[in-house]
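Task: encode each sequence below as structure tokens.

Item 1
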Amino acid sequence: MIARIAKIVTGALAYRFTGRTSDSAYQSLIRLFCKTQGRSNDILHAIVKQTRPAQILPNPSGILGEVTDPQAEEVAEHIRERGFYIFPKKVPTALCEDLMKFALHKEATPTPRLPNMPEKVRFDPQFPVAHGYRFIEQDLIENQTVQQIASDQSLLTIAQKYLNCLPVMSILAMWWSTAVAGDEEVRRQLAQMFHFDMDRIKWLKFFIHLTDIGPDNGPHCYVARSNRTGNQPRELLRRGYTRISDEDINKYYPADAVEEITGPRGTIFAADTRGFHKGKTIQSGDRLIFQIEFSDCLFGGIYHRLDRPSCMATQFTEMLGKYPDIYSRFAA
């Protein structure tokens, strides 16, 4: 354990000057998390948040409506307790329609990519050729609706309250999942088996349903309270950063601990995905999900710098100017 701690310390010093995390430091972060049942990440986060104090956001409103400080604290506390929170307010219809239009016209990366399949393909709901389709981050941020979400102060207010520090936008993602039949390896690659994420030290993800999602349409499944320190069995964590079967989850958690997040288009929820979760395998239809992640810092998994969009929305331009630390993924 001492060697792993040393690698994290060395990696953190290098990260301070380069903004990059060595693979040895990242792997040590994961192994320590598993060894300590999450306590190591809690300690590291306590250090990180001292370097990124929270800031007052002048207009904490957006797609969630106006978010007051007490409301943000209530949401944050609910996530700390159960691991996720489903917002009662739906995302505006126009925003969903804009992203749907983008997703039907923009080419995406087929996942998994089968032999003789092009690098990028367009999703055709009538003739899906892949199990999943993942959009490229740079393509996403070029879209002004995505820019609106990335600079949405209601989301940032919730993220900052949960993280107890100034957040940094760390991941943008959007993907189609289809009912094309696949084996266990396909389900592994599509995150349709239980797992925990370890992108950063501490983070919060927001998910937006862009299609109606019922029990047969691949809902997000979350093991309630498995985000809490010590609530992940050592027997499962000894396996490391891997996929876990439903049967193994059921050995350690009661049946009612696994909650399926369903809802119509426009449903938005936040989750701390260090808890066990998966996307349920789709039985019918297809599913389009948008995701944005905010973290305490970028120390962790490999990431790529994003170029500033060629055409930027006014709100996004203003937020980049006022809060460059939130958008440190963007090249100068």
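Item 2
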Amino acid sequence: MTAPRELAQRWRGTLVLKRDAFSTVERGRFLTADGEADAVLRRIDTVPWWAWPLARLLFARERRALAIAGGLGVAPALLHCGRRALVRTFIDGLAMHLAPPVGDGAYFHSAKAVLRRLHRAGVCHNDLAKEQNWLCARDGTAALTDFQLAVVFRRRGKLFRLAAYEDLRHLLKHKRKYAPHALTARERRVLARKSLPTRVWMASGKRLYHWLTRGILRFADREGGGPRLVREAPLIAAALKRHPHVRDAAVVAFPDRRSGTGLYAFVEADALAARELDEALAAAGAKPPEHVQVVDALPRDAAGHVRTEILQLVAMNQVDLIETLVREGGEREIVARIVAGRQNWRDRFAF
């Protein structure tokens, strides 16, 4: 994909992080006055005509919010903002759903401090129920991203207090999930009391929202894989596992420059020809994924579950972020072999 016209000679994209009807998000290198910087681009120059009004509104919200939040050390700093392209710094960290802070009370202590700084500056994020909007930096502290729904308030009135309360409540829901032992009595009271607008929203507007996003726009899952990850991936995995020489299989989604969303299958088996797997999928009536990689072993946690968060990063070519997830010993060797043999070559990074 070529760079937006307004960023000619300044942007060098490396891979797509996300694509939907309202924008495309890319990771790459941006030329600043001090040289090239690792950065993230949100562009709306390729959105369909019918999505343009809302895309422009979301774009403007993120621009206003990052202009403030980026200077607080709690969110990406704004490097450039034109009419249809916004460039922000890249935060070296992982989203919460890829690196869940299980039992990590210190992470949630830093996350609460992040919210305090954001709210003191008059900014409410408004989309913190999504785990992918919470980042865990390499030093273990929290940061925020994706400010498309954020609002900058001129004064701390009733609407601000309601929005700030819901930001906090959504953070505490994640804390209850991953570090319930660290919840205070006051935090438990906050969790037990939804604001009136939230109660009204859940009783009425949320149904319309789900009809629009899941029925019309076809957003179907938390990580952005859409209906292909929800509907096709289980069929593909089941068909692969039925092959007599396949020990296990995992299918993850990745943003694709051509089709929007691609599927990547990791197949645990001894030497096995890709043709055999294609035949197995065809016999099961499953549409083949964009990439199939046969590996001698899949990374697993202590309970024996496949670590799909690592496979997700391999599929997305964000292999430079895997280091913090990999344990020493045998798992490091397993992951290194998977990375070396990956099929989705569109990046410049090395593991």
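Check on item 2: The longest helix spans residues 158-178. The first strand starts at residue 11 and ends at 20.
End of task.
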